[in-house]
Design goal:
By secondary structure, the protein is of the alpha/beta class. The chain has a single domain, classed as Rossmann fold (3-Layer(aba) Sandwich). It has nine helices and seven strands. α1 runs parallel beside α4. The chain starts with a helix and ends in a 23-residue tail after the last strand.
Length: about 280
Amino acid sequence: MTSIAEHIARERGLVGAKQLRYSLDFAQYYHRWYSNVLLGLLPSDRSYTVLDCGCGTGVLLPPLRQRSGKTVGLDLCWENLREARVGHGAGPLVVADVARLPVAPASFNQIVCRGVLHRLADVAPGLRELCAALKPGGDLVISEPIGDSRAVSVLRDAAFAAGMHPFPGQRLRYLTVHEWIAAAHVAGLRTERWFHLGYVAFPLIGFPDAVPLMRHLPGRMAIARLLLHVDRVLARTPGVRTRSWQAVFHFRKPPSQPGTAESSRQREHAPVRAK
C-alpha cells in the first residue's frame, strides 16, 4: 500500500510535468473543454460554496470561481497549491487528504473531483468523506479512469512499460463503471447521470508531458480541434463508445436518507456538449 508520504513525493515530482502540460496551447484548449464538460453538469449559483477536491495546480479553479460565491481548492501536495496560487490568484487553498477531509459535515453545495479518487488505495473512505462534506441535495462530479475496456487496459500497460504514463510507478487497479457507481451508492450517494469520456484526443492533446507527439507537429491547434471532434464522434458511436479511457459521474447526496428506488438508479447519458 502506498503511504501518504509516497503520494506526496510522487506529486512533487509531477509539478514540472503539469507546468509543461498547462502551458501548451493545444493542451490548454483540451483542458478548457474538459473542465466545461464537468461544470456543465452543475448549476451555477453565486450563493454556493464549492470544493475543488484534489485541485492540483489549479486548472479548474478559475471557472469555478466565476460560478460560485466561494471556491475552496484542496490538495495533498503543498507544491501543487503554490503553483495554483501563483498561476490563478487568491482564494482559499487547503493542504489535506481526500480520505480525511478537514471540513465540517455539510459544508459544500458542490464538489468537483477531477481524476483523483482512483489513486487512493481504497476509494470507499474518500467517497464517504465527500458525501459527508456535501449539504443534503448537494452535487458531486467526478471524472475517473475506468477498467471496462480490455483494449484500453492493454494501452495503459504499454504506456507504463514505455515510461509514458502520467503517473509512473503507480500501477493501479482501475474500477469499472459499475464498481464506481456501486461504491458511490454504498457511501450514501445516488447516481444522477454518467457517461464515457476520452478516446484519441485524451492522451494525445490532454497529456503532452507523457505523450510528446503533438509538441513537435506543425499546425498543432488545427490537429487538436480535429482530434477533439473525433472524440465527440466516438462518444456517440455504438460499439466504440464504451472503449473510453475514463468516465464522468454526477452523484447527488439525497435530501433524505438513501434507500429509495431513486437512489439505486444508474443511467448512462450522452456526453454533455461543451464548446
